Amino acid sequence: MTRPSAATVDDPDVRSGDGADPAVDLDPAVAADLRRLRDLSRLLDDSIRVPGTHWRIGLDPVIGLVPVVGDAVGAALAAYVLSVAVRTGVPRATLARVAFVLWIDAVVGAVPVAGDLFDAYWKANRRTVGLLDARLADPASAAADRRYLWSVGLGAVGLGVATIVALAALGWWLAGALGMVT
Length: 182
Description:
Layout: H1 28-46, E1 48-49, E2 56-57, H2 59-64, H3 69-88, H4 92-109, H5 114-122, H6 124-137, H7 142-177
Antiparallel strand pairs: 1-2
Pfam family, one: DUF4112
Keywords: Membrane, Transmembrane, Transmembrane helix
Protein name: DUF4112 domain-containing protein
């Protein structure tokens, strides 16, 4: 069975559990790190089945319910995930994409309760392991990461411009409402 290319539309949902181990040609220490990362990902994102459904959650959203400590544990785990990604030798675009997934998880996950629900859905650890596995299985598909990062960057610039325009319009309206602009 071949591993799906990272160039697929639903790339962030690439799963790493099909039994193939792209780490066979890696340094044994890095391969062991990747196996630990897969196990950790399963524990944090998919270890608990929600009764009566096919939905699975992990310990990540449960840990996140603990104020301050949950976010600190999440940051430490993200640092570990990123360090393993660096040691695997994947391209910088893939590292940036892994960092972006972890950043979204940290920012949105910091919102009390809603962030924990987001963590249960987003499954950042599974996404990052999927990205690493896909890149190690098919190094030539790293171009997909560059395209993704360009898309995200352009989207962020567009969102920033729209935010500035909306704030300027709001300020202009507020100044007019207070009689500051005639």
